């Protein structure tokens, strides 16, 4: 995994008004601006995870892994879901201090974008808390990963509340948590360092955040050779932003667990109805960039669903009733990880 600009300009725009799209594109263009300026200064680096760093990360959560093994979860599924969670946290670690720089730059430079910026980051903040407050996620996520994620999210919430000068309270849900002091430490450190940064120095902020959260051996830096070789044809994808969908795979695992529980209590025909209703509703696209639960289903009238939740229900449904059908969505890894956990839990009688 290498990270520079986190998401391509193909950010999923379905359901988003043009001002929010403009903010997202501005954000990613600013990522590219930082990278370009660091390259000109001869200080650009690429954030990478390797087999060695992933091994170190998995070792650091070995206690949780042993608990899962004792509970009867299959070893290959434990490894699979752990690697997914490790990858997601590493990506957040890289982006957290850089996104603070970027959003500050956008607010200071593009005044007309300020309202759209607020609405856009609000979506991300709500999605983050929705994930972090989910009891199933709390139960299954290794403590080290969960605590580091909470600390980074809390720090980012403090940054946003400062950015919007008290008009928001995104850090409020994290204040009562035991590690909120670490969130404050991260935020205070960023405040001290960001004023005197030169091009390329932002990568040292990533290292500082990693040191504070105990994640320094979870990644490595690779020098930028100044050029990139294209050695393969681009893959055809069925989603407008496969990178965004990949970044959401940890959340997808838990949506799949919900799908399996629902479908176990349904007939094949009922599952088919759910899958096909979502497929019809998604002909014009599903907004999986947003955590908002704004979709309703006649076949599942008990609640509303987010776009990602619907995609997972549809994917799991077609796997049951029409496994030969290729949906063109890169959700197989979280699907298999969730299926392994679900089957192991069912075998235990859970």
What secondary-structure arrangement, pairings included, does this model have?
Layout: E1 2-3, H1 18-40, E2 45-48, H2 51-60, H3 62-70, H4 75-109, H5 114-132, H6 135-140, H7 143-163, H8 180-194, H9 202-213, E3 220-223, H10 242-247, H11 249-264, H12 268-281, H13 307-321, H14 332-347
Antiparallel strand pairs: 1-2, 2-3
Which characteristics define this entry?
2 domains, 3 strands, 3% strand, 3-stranded antiparallel β-sheet, disordered N terminus, 350 residues, mainly alpha
Give me the side-by-side strand order of the main sheet: 1-2-3
Number of domains as seen in the coordinates: 2
Structural Rg: 21 Å
Label the structural class.
mainly alpha
Characterization of this structure:
The protein has 14 helices and three strands. It is an all-alpha fold. It has two domains: 2-223, no CATH class; 242-347, no CATH class. Helix 8 (180-194) packs antiparallel against helix 9 (202-213). The radius of gyration is 21 Å and the shape is globular. The relative contact order is 0.14. The model is unreliable at 1-14 and 230-239 (pLDDT under 50).
């Amino acid at each position: 995994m290498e990270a520079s600009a986190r998401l391509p300009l193909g950010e999923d725009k379905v359901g988003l008004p043009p001002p929010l799209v403009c903010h997202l594109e501005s954000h990613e263009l600013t990522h590219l601006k930082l990278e370009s300026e660091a390259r000109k200064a001869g200080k650009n680096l690429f954030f990478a995870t390797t087999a060695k760093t992933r091994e170190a990360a998995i070792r650091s959560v070995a206690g949780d892994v042993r608990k899962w093994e004792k509970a009867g979860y299959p070893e290959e599924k434990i490894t699979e879901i752990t690697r997914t969670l490790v990858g997601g946290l590493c990506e957040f670690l890289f982006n957290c201090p850089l996104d603070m720089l970027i959003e500050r730059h956008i607010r200071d430079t593009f005044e007309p974008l300020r309202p759209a910026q607020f609405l856009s980051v609000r979506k991300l903040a709500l999605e983050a808390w929705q994930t972090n407050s989910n009891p199933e996620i709390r139960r299954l996520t290794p403590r080290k990963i969960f605590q580091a994620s909470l600390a980074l999210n809390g720090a980012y919430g403090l940054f946003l509340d400062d950015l919007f000068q008290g008009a928001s309270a995104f850090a409020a849900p994290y204040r009562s948590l035991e590690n909120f002091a670490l969130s404050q430490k991260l935020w205070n450190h960023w405040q001290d360092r960001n004023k005197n940064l030169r091009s390329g120095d932002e990568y040292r902020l990533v290292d500082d955040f990693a040191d504070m959260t105990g994640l320094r051996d979870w990644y490595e830096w690779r020098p930028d050779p100044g050029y990139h070789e294209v050695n393969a044809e681009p893959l055809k994808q069925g989603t407008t932003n496969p990178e965004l969908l990949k970044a959401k795979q940890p959340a997808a695992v838990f949506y799949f667990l919900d799908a399996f529980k629902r479908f176990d209590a349904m007939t094949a025909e009922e599952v088919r109805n759910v899958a096909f209703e979502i497929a019809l509703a998604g002909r014009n696209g599903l907004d999986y960039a947003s955590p908002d639960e704004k979709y309703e289903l006649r076949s599942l009238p008990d609640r509303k669903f987010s776009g990602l939740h619907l995609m997972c229900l549809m994917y799991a449904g077609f796997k049951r009733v029409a496994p030969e059908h290729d949906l063109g969505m890169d959700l197989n890894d979280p699907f298999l990880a969730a299926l392994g956990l679900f089957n192991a839990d069912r075998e235990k009688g859970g």
